[in-house]
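Hypothesis: this fold can be encoded by more than one sequence.
Test: take the structure tokens below, design a sequence, compare later.
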């Protein structure tokens, strides 16, 4: 049947970066000029960018390099390919010294600071040496193609949380305003019940419900530097009085109903009050000099009073990060964590058990701290390197250090069971810390500038039936209010579990083929009988499929793999024009050949879209009968070669919707080389987190009522994992971690399952918690490795290099409950050193009945309200037990 050519525009878009923390790291700083040594600050930046990706100890690399990546720099051998790099000195052996503790003794009760000890060992550091910019031949793909024992980068597992299932929709509340424009310079703020208090030279009281300013509390001659709500004996009267700490060292108490100061204590401190903390019926105030005042309950009403006499303790000066945990005071300063147990009672002595472990140097300085209400044994400290250290109250030691980002953690809050973390980029993440690795539940852009504070009020859930989380940035003095209960996510999960109530499903068949064709031409298929029948046999593996996807790699010869960095940046115009003309001819020749093969099928097909990127080429055919159901069509390209500058490696992303299901097809070519596992992992991260341009007019054809109907994870279709159905295929270049001889023997004995135990990709899936393909599946492999053959034969590489065979060519899919794989095979084609791989998949496409969905939403909301009623009572009891237990 004929082929109808439709939207076949070819785009060659530049790499698009996501404004996020953990997903795409910024590029490393430029290297210093030739002959100049790095400053300590530059070395620190490089080390911080290095993540956890260092050569294994067994590699014995004398000159490792920091490779410039699109997602994260990695270390590699001198002969690493596909990236340009700058040299950094060899990593020295990791050593840590124990810092000495300090003891303060004065006329006040003794406060013994816990002596810091090293945290769990982290990674190597950089020696003080000069660094020089150098280029590497980025196309020398096979520089280390054979397995060398002891150089397997796969042994180094990532520390990063699993973000593959993260929801990107901001958790806006349905019952409160999203934003409060403060319109003045706010230094500190807090929230309790209905009241938000912001303060600096004046104090304003705002309503959480309306976002309106309710009144002003004037305090002339005082600039407020800290705030804290005063406890109440009646839980329903919580949040009516607040203490204000000032730059002058005075303490003020304000009545929020009357909007006036009702008590003051001039000279309570000699230096600015940096923190006000609540502990049961006590209030603790801390100043810059480390003076800690404990204001105990007054004998008249049992509440702390500024008229009373505080008990004074002393901690280290400049201890600006502190959190009350039970009856303890956990303080972070620099890289050290210290624990105190102050008390307003004279007979109670400060108690110290064994010293507390400190943070290792590369964890960075402490920036914030918090706890989770549901996990009272853990204390979390954020760091300026993007890490979070975790301490155990019972063990009194650092139990873990988790890398979240390369960006500074500016604030954290424990919200129910989840840890909310804000970064200097203005992005907020929500982590489920109960799973290993941590799971990213949500991430979104909260502010355009650094977030200075995240604050949650745990009384609001039983006082107002909500759990607001407030964030603020000083960049524009704007405060945002988020739904700490993440109501919409709860309702979405409920709807997804009851989709059969409002959706109808039909099955469409998709045939997908990936092949590294090694710059062969369509005419080369006539070289032998098997190759000549390839396309016919391929199309016969599916029964008249509705969708046919071809994804080719190395469609053109990449300058005979002799392109160097110098030749890329200094191209001659006439040579470039000739190369472009050659590539265009190759793309068209293969498109014509594929269209001819598809036209011989019983049904008529439409060429929906074709796209190319240097050697990559993708095209999708759909049945004419399906075209009317197709919409939301768009494509993009992602360059990962040369750190995202060159398209010799990368991916083509094609996406569209059928009815109310979204589909995304990724054709990729990842970093080559036996030991370059980390580079391949980073390529995958860059591809899966890349931006896909949305159609200018919305949909190409068809219509949808809501993006929620077709996309998942709160996405809008601008990223790969927003789509309900995802396929990632291509020359992924993952190798087998065995030497050639045992591999050849296992192939001869058809011990496929045994050989797959050494497959790098499968090993990553099993052992690397941050591997981006973990949410994906692959059909069982029953065929021999598809790489590397002598062209024109069925014999594995007999050249001088004698490369080890590997399953480089793969097809992975994601669509829980939506995809059934029915076929997965290789094909005998001898015109390339790779064999094609194809898969056939039955995809369940859904159509949403909006009337039935409306009823399902009502039922889900009713279920949410029942859940909330139970949660409110539990939260009230938890608050009373923890805040007022004596």
């Amino acid at each position: 049947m004929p082929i109808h050519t439709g939207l076949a525009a070819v785009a060659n878009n530049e790499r698009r970066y996501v404004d996020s923390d953990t997903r795409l790291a910024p590029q490393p700083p430029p290297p210093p000029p030739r002959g100049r040594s790095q400053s300590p600050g530059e070395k620190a930046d490089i080390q911080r960018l290095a993540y956890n990706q260092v050569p294994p100890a067994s590699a014995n690399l004398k000159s490792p390099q920091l490779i410039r990546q699109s997602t994260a720099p990695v270390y590699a051998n001198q002969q690493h390919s596909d990236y340009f790099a700058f040299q950094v000195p060899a990593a020295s052996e990791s050593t840590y010294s124990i810092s000495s503790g300090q003891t303060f003794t004065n006329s006040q009760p003794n406060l013994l600071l816990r002596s810091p000890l090293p945290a769990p060992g982290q990674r190597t550091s950089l020696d003080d040496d000069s660094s020089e910019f150098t280029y590497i031949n980025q196309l020398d793909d096979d520089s280390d193609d054979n397995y060398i024992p002891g150089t397997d980068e796969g042994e180094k597992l990532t520390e990063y949380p699993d973000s593959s299932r993260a929801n990107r929709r901001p958790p806006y509340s349905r019952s409160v305003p999203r934003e409060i424009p403060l319109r003045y310079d706010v230094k500190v703020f807090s929230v309790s019940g209905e009241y938000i208090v912001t303060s600096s030279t004046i104090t304003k009281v705002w309503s959480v419900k309306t976002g309106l300013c309710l009144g002003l509390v004037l305090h002339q001659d005082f600039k407020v530097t800290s705030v804290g709500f005063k406890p109440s004996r009646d839980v329903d009267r919580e949040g009516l009085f607040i203490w204000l700490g000032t730059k002058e060292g005075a303490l003020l108490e304000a009545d929020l109903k009357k909007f006036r100061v009702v008590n003051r204590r001039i000279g309570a401190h000699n230096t600015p009050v940096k923190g006000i903390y609540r502990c049961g019926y006590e209030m603790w105030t801390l100043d810059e000099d480390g003076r800690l005042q404990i204001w105990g309950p007054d004998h008249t009403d049992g509440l702390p009073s500024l008229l009373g006499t505080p008990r004074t303790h002393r901690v280290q000066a400049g201890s600006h990060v502190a959190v009350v945990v039970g009856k303890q005071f956990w303080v972070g300063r620099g890289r050290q964590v210290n624990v105190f147990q102050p008390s307003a009672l004279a007979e109670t002595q400060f108690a110290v058990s064994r010293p507390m472990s400190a943070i290792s140097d590369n964890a960075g300085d402490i920036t914030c701290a918090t706890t989770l209400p549901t996990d009272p044994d853990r204390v979390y400290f954020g760091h300026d390197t993007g890490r979070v250290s975790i301490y155990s109250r019972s063990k009194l030691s650092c139990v873990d250090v988790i890398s979240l980002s390369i960006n500074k953690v500016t604030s954290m809050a424990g919200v129910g069971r989840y840890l909310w973390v804000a970064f200097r980029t203005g992005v907020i993440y929500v982590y489920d810390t109960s799973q290993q690795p941590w799971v990213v539940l949500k991430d979104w852009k909260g502010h355009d500038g650094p977030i200075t504070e995240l604050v949650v009020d745990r009384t609001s859930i039983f006082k107002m039936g909500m759990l607001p989380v407030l964030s603020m940035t000083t960049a524009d003095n704007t405060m945002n209010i988020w739904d700490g209960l993440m109501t919409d996510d709860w309702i979405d999960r409920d709807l997804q579990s009851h989709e059969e109530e409002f959706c109808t499903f039909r099955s469409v068949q998709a045939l997908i083929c990936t092949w590294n064709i090694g710059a062969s031409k369509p005419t080369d298929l006539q070289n032998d009988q098997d190759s000549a029948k390839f396309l016919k046999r391929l199309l016969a593996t599916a029964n008249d499929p509705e969708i046919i996807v071809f994804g080719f790699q190395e469609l053109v010869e990449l300058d005979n793999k002799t392109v160097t960095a110098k030749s890329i940046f200094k191209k001659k115009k006439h040579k470039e024009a000739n190369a472009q003309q050659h590539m265009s001819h190759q793309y068209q020749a293969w498109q014509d050949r594929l269209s001819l093969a598809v036209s011989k099928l019983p049904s008529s097909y439409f060429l929906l879209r074709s796209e190319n990127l240097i050697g990559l080429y993708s095209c999708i055919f759909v049945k004419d009968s399906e075209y009317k159901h197709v919409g939301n069509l768009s494509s993009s390209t992602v360059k990962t070669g040369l750190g995202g500058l060159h398209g010799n490696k990368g991916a083509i992303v094609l996406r569209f919707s059928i009815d109310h299901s979204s589909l995304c097809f990724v054709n990729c070519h990842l970093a080559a080389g036996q030991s370059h596992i980390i580079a391949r992992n980073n390529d995958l991260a860059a591809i899966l987190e890349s931006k896909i341009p949305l159609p200018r007019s919305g949909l190409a054809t068809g219509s949808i009522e809501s993006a929620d109907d077709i996309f998942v994870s709160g996405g809008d279709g601008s990223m790969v994992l927003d789509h309900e159905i995802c396929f990632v295929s291509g020359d992924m270049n993952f190798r087998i971690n065995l030497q050639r001889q045992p591999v050849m023997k296992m192939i001869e004995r058809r011990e496929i399952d045994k050989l797959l135990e050494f497959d790098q990709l499968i090993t990553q899936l099993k052992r690397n918690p941050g591997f981006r393909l973990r949410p994906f599946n692959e059909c069982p492999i029953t065929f021999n490795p598809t790489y590397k053959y002598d062209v024109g034969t069925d014999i594995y590489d007999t050249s001088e290099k004698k490369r080890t065979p590997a399953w480089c060519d793969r097809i992975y899919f994601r669509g829980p409950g939506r995809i059934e794989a029915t076929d997965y095979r290789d094909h005998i084609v001898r015109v390339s050193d790779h064999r094609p791989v194809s898969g056939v998949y039955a995809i369940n496409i859904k159509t949403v009945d909006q009337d039935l969905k409306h009823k399902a939403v009502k039922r889900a909301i009713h279920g949410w309200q029942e859940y909330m009623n139970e949660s409110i009572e539990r939260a009230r009891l938890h608050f009373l037990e923890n805040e007022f237990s004596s």
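The CA atoms of residues 115 and 612 lie 60 Å apart. Confidence is low (pLDDT under 50) at residues 6-141, 150-158, 559-571, 697-705.
Hypothesis status: open.
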